[in-house]
């Protein structure tokens, strides 16, 4: 408790956002590998997160990518159709896979 | 050797480790030398950038040559894609409801004027910081060592707010919710729950960081500050505190930020632990900020190794440095002026007398006697959490 320093006087000055106007998060265009299934990735994944979030997971197994997509469907409620799921997993494993099934 | 060549060699060396098809798990030094992005995010300098939506930004290693992390270099980690891009400061309130005698909607003006204002300097670290140290690669962002920082936070005590609202007899759990939102209505919010017994007087609701308003990306206008705890519970753009009697099952509590519930907190890639526990308190760790991997230093010159060390608030007792592969260790000088939750700065003067590659190792020991293990001694976990290996950087003496 003694490490919390009491500030004797009332706070002066008011809060202000240090950005003028609305804040804008820049858009980053990641180098995306084109190929079969990319359309499905674009339609199903990029709604919620950037491509960077995918490729910065590092190369992963087919099982890993399959479980990730399942997590998006089950826990994050992403409306991904069954056919699309397979297409997305195939794409992710082909381009961002580590060659192992599991 | 040219710096560039030297980098190439170390990349090849680490690729060799990562590329092995061994089933056995292995822990090594986390990634180094990631480049900063050319693009700066609002109120930030260009940082190591993993994602723009949600924003995920890492501080460079050089940041950790100093004990206070500047606001424009401080790491950023959000979970959901939709962050409010505008905050109406006159309308913003923090709501306290649930099992309280009196529901409160506290404006920012009230928060700054009607409550005792307090400060605490504390380390904020992502539980997945240094995740890139683990092989096989655990899911999640492959952070180097820069998903952490230390700032002076100013705000009001959470306990003062709860006392004002008046806790009912059955109050047991506190849920914290911020303003970030998912793309889909049904996606769970990033709500964190903490047991009332975990919340001491050091927990504050902060509006300032290093004497400035919080940067947007660090949770403007208010965030929870939980000294000693990993950052997953330091809810940003805090808007609602709800008091309950029972633990509510939530995705971000039940599924994320958990480690195996056993003594070593380890598991194998083939057999994940059946039971897990939340990551909560930080373990003892140090990071060398200078020199950096791949740098050249002159033979017989005066090199001052600098870095930071911290734990969950027990406090750092010693930082030991080795320049002979861990055979012998010498004590670094410590600077501890910001309290026990802050970064301890260390420095170690060294004169390299041998040409060629030099490994510099740093090992922190806290007041409980807990010390950092060698990376290879740290058991693997599938979330890649809580890495705290002895830090090793490699320079070239020329």
Task: Note down, in words, how this protein is organized.
The complex is a heterodimer of chains A (102) and B (398). Chain A is mainly alpha-helical and 102 residues long. Chain A has one domain (31-102): Cytochrome c-like domain (Cytochrome Bc1 Complex, Chain D, domain 2, Orthogonal Bundle). Chain A has helices spanning 38-44, 51-55, 62-74, 82-96, and one strand spanning 5-7. Chain A is elongated, with a radius of gyration of 21 Å. Mean pLDDT of chain A is 86; it is low at 8-12. Chain B is mainly beta and 398 residues long. Helix content of chain B is 9%, strand content 33%. Chain B has four helices and 26 strands. In chain B, the strands form seven sheets. A five-stranded mixed sheet of chain B has the order 6-5-15-10-11. In chain B, strands 7, 9, 12, 13 and 14 form a five-stranded antiparallel sheet that branches. A five-stranded mixed sheet of chain B has the order 19-26-25-21-22, with no helix packed on it. The longest helix of chain B is centred in the first third of the chain and has 17 residues, at 3-19. Chain B is globular, with a radius of gyration of 22 Å. The termini of chain B are close together. Chains A and B meet through strand 1 and helix 3 of A and strand 2, helix 2, strand 7 and strand 13 of B. Strand 1 (5-7) of chain A pairs antiparallel with strand 7 of chain B.
């Amino acid at each position: 408790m003694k490490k919390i320093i009491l500030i004797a006087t009332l706070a002066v000055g008011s809060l202000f956002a240090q950005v003028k106007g609305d804040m804008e998060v820049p858009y980053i265009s990641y180098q995306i590998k084109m190929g079969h299934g990319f359309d499905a990735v674009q339609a199903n994944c990029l709604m919620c997160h950037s491509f960077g979030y995918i490729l910065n997971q590092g190369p992963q197994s087919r099982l890993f990518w399959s479980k990730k997509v399942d997590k998006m469907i089950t826990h994050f409620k992403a409306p991904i159709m069954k056919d699309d799921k397979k297409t997305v997993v195939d794409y992710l494993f082909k381009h961002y896979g580590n060659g192992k099934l599991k | 050797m040219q710096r560039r060549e030297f980098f190439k060699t170390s990349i090849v060396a680490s690729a060799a480790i990562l590329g092995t098809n061994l089933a056995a798990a292995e822990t090594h030094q986390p990634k180094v030398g990631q480049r900063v992005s050319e693009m700066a995010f609002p109120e930030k300098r260009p940082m190591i950038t993993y994602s723009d939506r949600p924003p995920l930004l890492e501080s460079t290693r050089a940041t950790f040559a100093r004990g206070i992390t500047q606001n424009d270099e401080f790491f950023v980690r959000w979970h959901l894609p939709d962050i409010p891009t505008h905050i109406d400061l006159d309308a913003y309130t923090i709501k306290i409801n649930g099992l309280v005698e009196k529901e409160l909607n506290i404006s920012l003006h009230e928060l700054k004027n009607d409550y005792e204002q307090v400060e605490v300097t504390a380390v904020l670290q992502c539980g997945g910081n240094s995740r890139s140290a683990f092989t096989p690669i655990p899911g999640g962002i492959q952070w180097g060592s820069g998903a952490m920082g230390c700032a002076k936070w100013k705000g009001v005590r959470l306990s003062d707010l709860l006392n004002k609202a008046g806790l009912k007899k059955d109050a047991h759990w506190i849920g914290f919710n911020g303003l970030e939102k998912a793309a889909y209505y049904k996606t769970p919010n990033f709500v964190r729950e903490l047991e009332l017994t975990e919340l001491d007087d050091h927990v504050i609701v902060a509006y300032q960081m290093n004497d400035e308003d919080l940067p947007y990306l660090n949770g403007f206008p208010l965030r929870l500050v939980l000294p000693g705890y990993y950052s997953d519970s330091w809810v940003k753009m805090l808007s609602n505190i709800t008091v309950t009697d029972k633990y509510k099952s939530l995705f971000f509590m039940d599924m994320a930020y958990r480690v195996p519930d056993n003594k070593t907190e380890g598991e194998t890639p083939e057999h994940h632990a059946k039971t897990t526990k939340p990551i909560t308190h930080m373990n003892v760790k140090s990071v060398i900020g200078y020199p950096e991997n791949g740098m050249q230093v002159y033979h017989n010159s005066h090199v001052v190794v600098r870095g930071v060390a911290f734990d969950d608030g027990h406090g750092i007792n010693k930082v030991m440095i080795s320049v002979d592969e861990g055979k012998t260790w010498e004590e670094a000088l410590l600077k501890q002026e910001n309290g026990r939750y802050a970064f301890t700065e260390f420095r170690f003067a060294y004169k390299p007398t041998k040409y060629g590659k030099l490994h510099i190792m740093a090992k922190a020991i806290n007041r409980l006697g807990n010390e950092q293990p060698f990376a290879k001694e740290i058991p693997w976990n599938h979330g890649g959490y809580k890495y705290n290996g002895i830090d090793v950087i490699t320079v070239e003496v020329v």
